[in-house]
Design brief:
The protein is mainly alpha-helical and 341 residues long. The chain folds into 2 domains: 2-192 and 303-333, Rossmann fold; 211-298, Tyrosyl-Transfer RNA Synthetase. 55% of the residues lie in helices and 7% in strands. The protein has helices at 2-10, 26-39, 51-54, 61-77, 95-104, 109-113, 116-124, 131-145, 159-175, 221-229, 246-259, 263-269, 275-300, 304-333, and strands spanning 12-18, 43-49, 86-89, 151-153, 184-186. The strands form 2 sheets. Strands 1-2-3 form a 3-stranded parallel beta sheet. A two-stranded parallel sheet has the order 4-5. α4 packs across α13 and α10 runs antiparallel to α13. The longest helix is centred in the C-terminal third of the chain and has 30 residues, at 304-333. The radius of gyration is 21 Å and the shape is globular. It starts with a helix and ends in an 8-residue tail after the last helix. Bound molecules: adenosine-5'-triphosphate and L-tryptophanamide.
Length: 341
């Protein structure tokens, strides 16, 4: 028994979050959520729905509420197990906003100005370049550092945000020793960046206005196969992974992530066959893999009270961990404790 306890104690902490901005895409699934589910045995996992981050882009309140609850059901349907992992909603644990403020004061304007996500999003939402969009990485750093996370599984697009988190942690540890664990990114080798099926030079994104380029995890088999059939490729008609063949490379990477086959095996499997056969095989493989998730999601959505209960329990436990770190930070930066002690 004591062996089991000490083995459990040694497990590293894994943390990640996702914004409730719509149904997750194949990109979110392969780049992030599928890995989260697989990490639950080896790590103490913490997952949150980042609703505070979502309002950096204008949200319709009723839609945000609906998307937040749906995201919880999606994560559960993808295999996140509340018996083994903490699952909660970011705004339910106020320590995230509280630590974010402190970290804002230890983050430089210059380093925030270099964030590519800020540049992309401020170009896309030019009429709402708000301060939250700019300081988004400080809130993300708070999410991670509050729980002293060792690893953060994310897609390749979040690498820069993890680097700034590490910089903030190191900077604060330099001033106040042993304050934070400096987290490592965990970025999958395959499908770390799934591209749009219509614009293979753009990442697949859940807020893409063109639904044809994007596979939503809850799409039906027919929708999935249709979207893969109309995926943009090239005129070479050869299934090989090579620079310049962005469309085919993307499909091969998706197929590889689901089938476990490497690129050489895939090239061999489709030697002498056209793109039509290949696209159909990828579409069918994806549809088969996503079907059980869709069915489980439908089942979970029939009982919203159960979803809310999971979030409440998750937030209560998360708060205990979070306030331990927040209190330590408040003390180190020099805030007089409440009650004077
Ligand atoms: P939005 O369109 O609202 O900005 P998004 O689709 O980019 O959303 P996020 O909520 O920002 O998704 O990201 C959730 C997780 O999915 C992150 O870990 C991110 O790195 C990963 N991710 C997002 N898009 C992709 C993609 N195309 N390929 C691989 N991983 C991705
Ligand atoms: N910024 C991330 C979502 C996110 C996150 C986090 C990821 C918010 N807080 C903490 C990892 C750890 C995104 O847009 N994908």
């Amino acid at each position: 028994m004591s062996e089991i306890v000490s083995a459990t104690k040694k497990k590293k902490i894994c943390l990640s979050c996702i914004q409730p901005t719509g149904v997750i895409t194949l990109g979110n699934y392969l780049g992030a959520v599928k890995n989260w589910a697989e990490m639950q045995d080896d790590y103490n996992c913490i997952f949150a729905v980042a609703d505070l981050h979502a309002i950096t882009v204008r949200q319709e309140p009723a839609a945000l509420r609906k998307n937040t609850r749906e995201m919880v059901a999606i994560l559960l349907a993808c295999g996140i197990d509340p018996e083994r992992s903490l699952l909660f909603i970011q705004s339910h644990v106020p320590a995230h906003s509280q630590l974010a403020w402190v970290l804002n004061c230890y983050t430089q304007f210059g380093e925030l100005s270099r964030m590519t996500q800020f540049k992309d999003k401020s170009a896309r939402y030019a009429d709402n370049i708000n301060a939250g969009l700019f300081t988004y990485p400080a809130l993300m750093a708070a999410d991670i550092l509050l729980y002293q996370a060792d690893v953060v599984p994310v897609g390749a697009d979040q690498k820069q945000h993890l680097e700034i988190t590490r910089d903030i942690a190191n900077r604060m540890n330099g001033l106040y020793p042993n304050l934070f664990t400096v987290p490592e990114p965990f970025i999958p080798k395959k499908a770390a960046r799934v591209m749009s099926l219509q614009n293979p030079d753009k990442k697949m994104s859940k807020s893409d206005p063109n639904p044809k380029g994007c596979i939503a995890i809850l799409d039906t088999e027919d929708q999935i196969i249709k979207k893969f059939k109309s995926a943009v490729t090239d005129s070479e008609a050869q299934v090989v992974y090579r620079e310049g063949k962005d469309g085919i490379n993307n499909l091969m990477s998706i197929y590889s992530a689901f089938s476990g086959k490497d690129y050489a095996e895939i090239e061999k499997e489709f030697e002498g066959k056209g793109y039509g056969d290949f696209k159909l095989a990828v579409g069918q493989t994806v549809a088969d893999a996503l079907k059980p998730i869709r069915e489980e999601y439908d089942r979970l959505m029939k009982d919203p009270a159960h979803l809310d209960e999971i979030c409440k329990n998750g937030a209560e436990t998360a708060s205990r961990f979070a306030y331990r770190t927040l209190n330590k930070v408040y003390k180190k930066v020099g805030f007089l404790p409440y009650g004077g002690k």
